[in-house]
Every structure is written in C-alpha cells, then in structure tokens.
Write a structure and sequence with these properties.
There is one protein chain. The protein contains eight helices and 13 strands. The strands form four sheets. A four-stranded antiparallel β-sheet has the order 4-7-13-8. Strand 2 and strand 3 form a beta hairpin. The protein is globular and about 55 Å long. With 437 residues, it is α+β, with helices and mostly antiparallel strands.
C-alpha cells in the first residue's frame, strides 16, 4: 500500500538518493516531477550547472512502498549557487590550494567533508622534503586569507567571425562606434614582453614599470542586456578624462620587483613560476600594495582601473559581444575552449594572443583582473562618467575578463564577477592604470 502523499518534486540536496513516499506509480511520479518548471530568477552564469542538476531527476527503484528518487538541487539563494558552482569548478582538481580555498570560504559547506578528505589525500601524497622545512602552503600570505569561489558562467556559442584589425586608442577621438573601423592589422601573437621595445604609443615610467597605452576620452555603451542580470542595464558612459592602462596584465617578473623591494608579499610559487606569465593568486589588497609601490618608484599616480575604464579599453571601440565580433572565434583568447595555445595547469604568457583594436592584450581570458569598484548586483544607479563606484567599508570588489580556466562564456567584453577583496584565488590577477597629467 502506498503511503501518505508528500511532494516528490522537492529538491533538497545535490544529487543524493532520497526516499520519498508517494501515492503514484513510479512512471507517473517521475512524469509529474519532470513537468515542474524551474524558477526563472536563476543567475545566468549558473544556468548550465543548475539545469543539469535540477533536471537530473529520475526514478531509481521502488521498494516497500517508497519511490526512491535521485533529486537534483535548484537553489534560490545566491550563496548556495556560488558554493555549488565553486565546488563543481574544483571537484576534480589535483591542487590542495583549491580545496583549502573552498574550506576557507565554506567551512561548514555541504561538500566540506569531501573537501577535507581530498585535501588530506593530496597532502599525504605530496613529496616529503629531505633537508629543508616544509614550504608554506600555497595561498599563505602576510595579510590575506586563502582563496574563495571562482564563478563558472554559461558557455557562449562558438563562432567563425574573424577579429577586426587594431587601431591604437591614442588615435581615436570617439571611442565607441558600433563596430571598430580598422586602420592597421591586429598585432600577431606571440610577444615576448621582456625583450619588446615600447611602441610609438607606449609609456614606460620606470625600468620595472609595466608598459602603458594612453586612452583618450570618449563615450561607449557599458553592459549587456541579453546575458547576466548584473550586467544590466546597458547604459551610456562618457569618460571625460585621459588615462593610461597597462598594455598587458602585470607579470610575475614585475610583481617580483616589488617583492624584492620588500613592498609586496611573496606569492605562491606554485602559481607564479613563469616570469612573463600574468601574476596571479593575489587579492585586491595585494594589488593595492603594488600600485602604492609603483607610484613611489615612478613618481606617477598609479592605481587600479575603474570598471568603466576597464570595459572601455577592453571593447576597443567596438559594441559587439566580443571585441572581435558577436561570435566566439578560436585562437583569440586564453580560455579552456577558445583554442590553442592552452594548458590546464596555467595561463599562457602575456601577449600570446592578438591585441584588441586599442592595442591591449589578454583582456579576454588569461586571468581575472581586479578593478577598483565595489561590487553591485546591477548597473542601476551606476555613475555615467567612468569614475569608481565605491561604497564605505566595501569588502567585495569587481573582477573582469575571465580566466584560462573558464569557458568562452567568460570572454565577453561585458563579463563581470565579484570577489572578496582580502581573498586570493589562483585565477585572479590585475593590470594597472594612471591618470594622464
């Protein structure tokens, strides 16, 4: 005899096997659950993960009057979404620091026991030092906590549209035509920045300073009305000041110059071994130490770019989804499904992919890049003049651009996400800016 009716479509946990009494035969119970509509307010960055989990509901067996169901999770709370997405992004990782990051962010999380077990196994399997004491665990810092979750957005469609050639921003008087009008061909990969001389529009304020490209004032449409709600509404931004932005993300060698001077912390050698790779595994607070040191040694007012300045430069005068067009094109960005060169272990060196029309490299993929702004869930009431959108005692800052670990859905010019300002994560880096005086 079937027992008391209970809602069998309740999504209670991430794919556990649940025993739920039901008055319906198995086929009807499964059909009723499958017909239930998912909520419409789910964050688009997680729609692929949640759809797979939520719709993975099927009848496993019938025993002693119970319908045994495998039930997927469809969380409505944003923190649950981030936790599940973060876990999905590291669950197959062989790096202890990824599990340390999860446990730091979610010490009582639903996957904490599994994370602890995997962390113990990886530590036990690590080579034992023979004469020197054990090196500090990756992510250890003088003033920053270990890492926190990294977002996993929905995949973007693949495409065949070739990128437009590049035009340096110094030659522009207006900055946001519907499609960039090329005046020269895109800079080819691969560039060795250690030996490359500054170009005619480049600025270098000191021997160890990053190369900068000046950006002239202009207008553009910021955001994206067809994707992530945090990127809405699209709004017109008028940048009335000239500024300069680093041509590449700050590299390991450039960071180490600051560390050698005692002004920046030593970062994880696990993540920062290649001198021309983008420096990563650092927090927003770490980046602030670097720009403070750079300002001192150069005599110039260095800072992080504002979010609007970053997107203005990343678009390179275009209004398309990607700077090269509206469809993904292989070989234009350093991401896991963007084509070669790509390695699962680390991002490629800066300058390994074509520059955008303004001459900036790797603003799509490579590493996420910190900007100065405090995180807001949308652009409602955002400033329209390109200044930093800050809040008192802000603890969560904006990161832009996606990383090599992410899919093509991260490579859109409008892509944005958030991170705790004191937390390090091995896919986060930055580039620098300064005002033109």
């Amino acid at each position: 005899m079937w027992r008391l009716l209970l809602p069998v479509c309740l999504l209670a946990s991430l794919s556990p096997t649940s025993a739920i009494p039901s008055p319906l035969p198995p086929a009807q119970a499964a059909s009723a659950c499958a017909s239930a509509s998912p909520p419409k307010d789910l964050h688009p960055h997680f729609k692929d993960t949640r759809a797979t989990a939520a719709l993975d509901l099927h009848l496993a067996q019938r025993h002693d009057g119970f319908v045994i169901l495998r039930v997927g999770l469809m969380p409505k709370d944003t923190s649950e979404e981030y936790e599940i997405t973060f876990w999905n992004s590291i669950k197959d990782s062989q790096y202890p620091s990824d599990y340390e990051a999860y446990l730091k962010a979610y010490p009582n999380g639903r996957f904490a026991p599994l994370a602890q077990a995997r962390l113990a196994r990886l530590r036990a399997a690590a080579p034992k030092p023979t004469s020197a004491p054990a090196a500090p665990v990756a992510h250890a810092a003088s003033n920053a906590a270990p890492a926190a979750p990294a977002p996993v957005p929905a995949p973007a469609p693949q495409a065949k549209t070739p990128p437009p050639p590049a035009t340096p921003p110094a030659a522009q008087t207006k900055a946001a035509p519907a499609v960039a009008t090329p005046a020269q061909t895109a800079v080819p990969a691969k560039v060795n920045i250690a030996t490359t001389k500054p170009g005619p529009h480049d600025i270098q304020d000191c021997p160890t300073c990053p190369l900068l490209i000046p950006v002239t004032p202009g207008n553009f449409m910021m955001g994206n009305d067809t994707d992530d709600p945090s990127e809405k509404p699209v709004h017109r931004v008028s940048i009335g000041h000239s500024y300069a932005l680093s041509k590449y993300a700050v590299t390991v060698a450039q960071w180490n110059a600051c560390a050698n001077a005692g002004a920046c912390p030593r970062l994880s050698s696990e993540s920062n071994s290649a001198p021309n790779a983008p420096v990563r595994d650092l927090s927003w607070d770490d980046a602030q130490q670097y720009v403070k040191w750079l300002s001192k040694v150069s005599g110039k007012p260095y800072r992080l770019p504002t979010e609007a300045e970053w997107e203005y430069a990343a678009r390179g005068g275009t209004a398309t989804r990607y700077w090269w067009g509206n469809e993904m094109r292989k070989g234009t960005a350093n991401c896991k499904d963007c084509g070669p060169p790509w390695r699962v272990e680390a991002p490629d060196d800066v300058g390994s992919f074509p520059a955008n029309p303004y001459g900036f490299y790797d603003m799509a993929g490579g590493v996420w890049e910190w900007v100065s702004d405090c995180w807001h869930n949308s652009y409602k009431n955002a400033p329209d003049d390109g200044r930093t959108w800050d809040e008192p005692n802000c603890q969560t800052r904006v990161i832009r651009g996606g990383s090599w670990r992410d899919g093509a859905g991260y490579m859109l010019s409008a892509t944005r996400f958030k991170y705790d300002s004191s937390v390090r994560y091995n896919a986060n880096g930055f580039r620098v800016a300064r005002d033109m005086q």
